[in-house]
Design goal:
The chain is about 5% helix and about 50% strand. It has 1 helix and 20 strands. The protein has one domain (about 1-110, about 125-195, about 200-370): Porin. About 35% of the residues are buried. The protein is globular. The strands form 2 sheets. A 16-stranded antiparallel barrel has the order 2-4-5-6-7-8-9-10-11-12-13-16-17-18-19-20. The protein has a two-stranded antiparallel ribbon with strand order 14-15.
Length: about 375
């Protein structure tokens, strides 16, 4: 009986929190015209999440591809960390862009709930060239499903930002991107590699990762095929890893659409966000090998009318050697409250079936998002 009362109270707080946040006043975005052809624009969005998680997997602000740990959980969390701000500067044919959000860690929930900003993007680009940090060329942005949980089925997505040099011509994109072997026991590159000594520094990683991608587009929607080629040369292994991604956003009935992605091969850190490391020790042969991953998701977005829309999705990621098997599925309802504001609710579940484990947690999330 007490457990039922606690859950009912938590859900009441979720709904009340959404009502309060949606009534807040926000400022409009603006653009600065320097009258010499140069322009500066400020953008981003403010997003408040109220999230209740219940089950035998530990609470997380959003699900990635990890095993959060077997913890009996009944927790309500409120945060605005996904909020972000960006600045773009246009000078002739070139555009510079920088963006930060607030998932940079730091602070606590005792008094101030302070959090640190985190660099997401920082690059310059023109028609053909992009230089700097942004989404990997291997990552298909158009295929991402619309969710309130930050990122949606990350366990099944290619989801990665890193420094790169990209060249685009017609439907083709080619890039060399930052290399890093995840799972070799070092500090995973750190954030600056300044003052890092000993085994925590990467002694190798002398060859960048290579990505090639071809984009299709028509009245039916859009799709992409991407290939990844990289050197895995740390942790006692010297091998070549390859992966393939197929993704798309296909028009359906009316304004509805279907979104999907399938990733096969030795994608490692590129797919599933910690679902798999690049290299693992085979528990049977005790050999160090490049892990293989199969990750996929499917989502359907239903446009009920000009005001309401819903997305239902299912995503799964599995690894070959260590036998990770994790899934995320959910359904949501989103209201376009104003041209710049949405209010929504999402109900879903995250499941860990690794090696006979049978763990899962359900979540209910309400969100308010105001686009600047």
């Amino acid at each position: 009986m007490n457990n039922i009362i606690k859950k009912t109270s938590a859900l009441s707080i979720l709904l009340v929190g959404t009502s309060l946040v949606s009534s807040m006043a926000m400022a409009d975005a603006f653009e600065v015209d320097f009258k010499n052809g140069d322009k500066m624009k400020f953008g981003g969005y403010l997003k408040a999440d109220a999230r209740y998680v219940n089950g035998d997997l530990n609470y997380q602000d959003y699900w990635i591809g990890n095993n959060p740990g077997a913890v009996e959980t009944s927790k309500l969390g409120l945060n605005i960390k996904e909020s972000r701000f960006n600045i773009s500067y246009v000078h002739g044919d070139w555009t510079g862009f920088i963006e930060m959000d607030f998932y940079g860690g730091g602070g606590n929930e005792i008094i101030s709930n302070s959090v640190n900003p985190r660099l997401r993007h920082g690059f310059v680009k023109n028609k053909n060239w992009l230089i700097g940090q942004t989404w990997s060329t291997f990552m298909p942005l158009a295929a991402l499903v619309e969710t309130l949980d930050f990122g949606g089925p990350m366990v099944a997505e290619v989801f990665i930002r890193q420094v790169q040099i990209r060249y685009s011509i017609g439907n083709w994109q080619f890039a060399i991107e930052n290399s890093q072997t995840y799972g070799d026991g070092d500090d995973n590159g750190g954030s600056g590699n300044v003052g890092v000594t000993g085994s925590n520094n990467d002694p190798d990683s002398k060859i960048p990762d290579f990505v090639a991608r071809y984009n299709f587009k028509g009245d039916w929607g859009q799709a992409s095929v991407a290939g990844l080629l990289r050197k895995v040369d740390q942790g006692g292994i010297d091998a070549t890893a390859t992966a393939l991604s197929l993704s798309g956003k296909i028009n359906a009935i009316g304004n509805d659409d279907i979104r999907f992605q399938v990733t096969l091969g030795e994608s490692g850190r590129y797919a599933g966000i910690t679902l798999a490391t690049d290299i693992v020790v085979d528990p049977i042969t005790d050999e160090t090998k490049a892990e293989k991953t199969t990750a996929w998701y499917l989502g359907y977005r239903r446009m009920w009318n000009d005001t309401y829309r819903s997305t239902v999705f299912y995503g799964n990621g599995e690894t070959d050697i260590l036998g990770h098997d994790r899934s995320h599925y959910a359904i949501n309802l989103i209201k376009q409250y104003t041209p710049n504001m949405i209010i929504g609710v999402e109900l879903g579940k995250y499941v860990v079936d690794d090696g006979g484990l049978d763990l899962d947690s359900s979540y209910l999330q309400t969100s308010v998002k105001f686009t600047l």
